[in-house]
Amino acid sequence: MLIPLYVFIFIAVDLIHWFSFNELQLASQVLHVLFLFLPLLWAFGLLPPLDALLLWGMEQALVFGLGGSPMSSNIRLLLMFGISASVAVCNYFIPSALGVVLFSISTGFLMSLDLSQVGSLCRSPREAFRDSEEVIVYLSLLLVALTEAGLLHHFLSSLDSPSPVAGPQAPVSYLLIVLFGICWALREIQGPYVLGGMFLNPLYPKGMSSVQAFIQKSRRLNNAAAIRRILLYFVSPFAMIAFLSVDKSLQLLHSVYLSIGFTRAFRVVWQSSEDALLQMVVVILVRLAAENNTLPDWEKLGTGGQLLLVGLLIDRATQFFAKLKFALTVLVTSWTEKKQRRQSAGTLLALNASLCPLLLAVITLSALLSAPLLSLFTLPIFLVGFPRPRRSWPGPVGTACPCPDSIFYQQMSGSLASALRLAFARGSLGTLASGSHFLVRFQDRMVWITILEKGYGYCTVNIKGLELQETSCHTVEARRVDEVLEAAFERPERLGFTQGVNLHWGNALIPCAALVVQTYSDARNVLSGIIDSHDHLRKLQEDFLKVLVWLLLRYGVQKHKGNLWNSEVVQGVGGRKSPSSQVAPTTCVQPLETVVMESNVSSPRYRQDSSRSTSFGDWSDEDDIFGPEPARRTVALVTAEAQYGQGSLPGSVEMDSLYENMALSALQPLQPLGLGVGMPTVDQGHNSEVFRNAPCPLPQLNFSCSQSEVFNLPTGWRTAPFPPSRLLQLRHLFPEDWFRFALGRLGPAVQDKNNEDMTKALKEDEVLKELHAQVALSCLISVGAESAFTSPSHVYRLYCGDILWTEGLDWLSSSQELYQLSLCAFRYSFKLLFDQASLGPIESPDDLFSTLEEYERNWYIGLVTENGWHSGVLREKPFLFSLGQDLSMGTYTGRVLSLQEQLVHVGHLNGEGVRGQWANLSWELLYATNDDEERYSIQAHPFMLRNLTVQAADPPLGYPIYSSAPLHIPSL
């Protein structure tokens, strides 16, 4: 279908040329030559699909003919092209030159703004109120520009001048040259390198050790950036409008190219002020160089046409040099890099050297068409890729291949967007243009930023997150990125002459800025010497009881305040309250092993008659010559039995513990543990009121203090199936002093007034104390912590909720809230163990109480595979802790995430190199059908960053793990 379509287009152009327009003679001749090579172009995949051709044509016409910008979506491109073309047509029919000036300025200013934001302001009155200052500034700028243009055109446009650089345009011309020089110099000093990244900037901060030091050292550069911003966005546009408003060619407007030229000129003043300033300076310099000599063809274009031609030439020249640098990088590294050197490398280099004019012709043609320079299989074999829009990909922006690590990029994107706003305003990232690409590096994270469109005071960007360092190719290129960035940002204070040169200039990445971003710092520690230390583990039991007592008392406070626990929605330790239910902040996540087991239970072949008596742990191989092993039941097994009857699941095996590399797709909605598993027991003891025989229903407890009822616990929590003698044997473990201390600190929270007598009465209530002692000791036995911990594996399994079966496990599992409190208490106690081993022991009850409150308020303590961990990151919990196991090394690890301001390094990528590699990726997978995962064209290339570039492509050809929707970022 593609070749017949092009044949039809070629014939149509030829027929139009013969019957109507002689202006199409050159185009017809070129198409006659291309007609002979259509099959070859089709075979090489160089013919653009119809949609790509139309979108590319509209984008080129919008940018260079009408002064617009490439857009972030096809719909926006179609709408903006239609509106811009309508403005040009209206200008052609407006009879008055003054009317053309005023209409062009007003429409150009409005179209240079992101009009989609107007709708969001109208939908959110509060946002509109907050942004009212910005709206007032825009309206003021428009009114001043209209007033200036109208007055200057009315009074000065008719004055005669002997030369183009004399008369009313002369002072404005020199002012524009001065403005350009100042703005260029102030922008250059904002980055670590100057003159296109070749030399180090001596004014840039050196040896940055902290965020505060960087901010302090950057004050002078920030002052320079503020001056540049004022000159570029608030002075230059009015100077350029003054230059255009008094131009004599406005009197000859009623021709097609003059109307289009001035429509573009008055718009690009706002759409891209820096580019417009450069174009006007070039036009002025050409006039100054010509002096009194006349250039008929040049003058015939008028100022608007001259600016259009200069803008097109500057863009094509910029593309040519960027493509040339990309081609030279491919050529040179194909020989100098040992891993890139192939047997045919010498032959290919010799061919390129002998056919150098042909290579330059290919690069020139690629630049003229604004098409990617395609490096075939990323070898030094260069072709012209088919023209396509700047976005390169036809699909909508924002598609990705998510995984558990995506949450870090999602959390980081908001703060990064705020940092980009400051960087755009200061000019730290250089000249901004649609299609520019930047790479952000922080620890093991890589962020790919693409500028989709640009206007007056805003940029629209796409933020992508690449996979963390896992493959060898990724690691090799990440190491080179670190070297390039460290050479720019972490250099010493004093440098020699040779060290002032950028030794990595040939790399695709040029460092350009350091940004302050609030994100998570990820620290991982091997717990050898902590989790396997008997001294530390002996204290874990004591801390567990103290934390559990504190949580039981906190439970009463939360219940009194109305923040009841919800058995349907359970968050992780330290998680925030659910919006749909007031879940207590100390709620813990149900172990995900239960979810995994439930997925097996739901399978038809596991649905057996409930009368079967064999349990999960009873299953064993029939050929086991050593006989059956003793039954081993975990909380997951007990839960499954509770929900699906006491029957067994033949063929099922005991599930492994949770590990940190579980895929996000495995996470399913958490289900509550089974209810009603345990049976209440009848004690025959004769001790205190709490430990005496407890018939069903249990009698009401007689508290000696009226406020004790607040800290009363549910009746089912006192029905543990343990004889009183067993509880009495462990009674000495209950921390009575800590119980009274915690009660004294929490008691005033449930009183209308801080009554010391009431608090004292609470502490002396023996029934309340014995109630909490019974529940705490019952939980201690049920989780298997009756004796001191001696095994790291036991600690790890208990932390994961993988509790070995005990006689009290059924009773504990019957109460979702008590089970979660117990699991939460153990995780808190392990975090206490970790902190005391690292920072020293906690000696006073005040310190312990403050530490536990800190855990509840600012920490998430759980597993990385839990939903609470992911929600904690997205909600920006200040700290997160997880216990993990490294199976390959046989060690246990502690992982701590800390949310804080960090310095992230940003580098500017060679945009043409990126487009060329993406074009090769598209050609290779769609035309050559080479989908080999180990193919040469995606292997690590330290100079071109080939593997990272392939990752950053849109799915299905690439695989970024996070991709944001188009983000509107103000840049004023």
What does this entry show, briefly?
This protein is 50% helix and 9% strand.
Characterization of the model:
The protein is α+β, with helices and mostly antiparallel strands and 972 residues long. Among the domains are: 1-44, no CATH class; 405-491 and 502-525 and 902-970, no CATH class; 534-559 and 704-897, no CATH class. It is built from 34 helices and 13 strands. Strands 5, 6, 7, 8, 9, 10, 11, 12 and 13 form a 9-stranded mixed β-sheet that branches. Strands 1-2 form a two-stranded antiparallel ribbon. β10 (879-886) and β11 form a beta hairpin. The longest helix has 35 residues, at 302-336. It starts with a helix and ends with a strand. Residues 565-696 have low confidence and may be disordered.
Number of helices: 34
User: What form results from the Cα inertia axes?
Assistant: elongated
The share of residues in extended strands comes to 5-15%
- The assigned structural class equals alpha+beta
Radius of gyration: 36 Å
The low-confidence parts are 565-696
Give the terminus-to-terminus CA distance. Answer: 48 Å
* Count of extended strands: 13
Largest sheet: 9 strands, mixed
Q: State the helical fraction.
A: 40-55%
**Overall pLDDT, averaged?**
79
Domain Pecanex C-terminal: 794-964
Organism: Takifugu rubripes
Biased composition (Polar residues): 600-617
Region (Disordered): 600-622
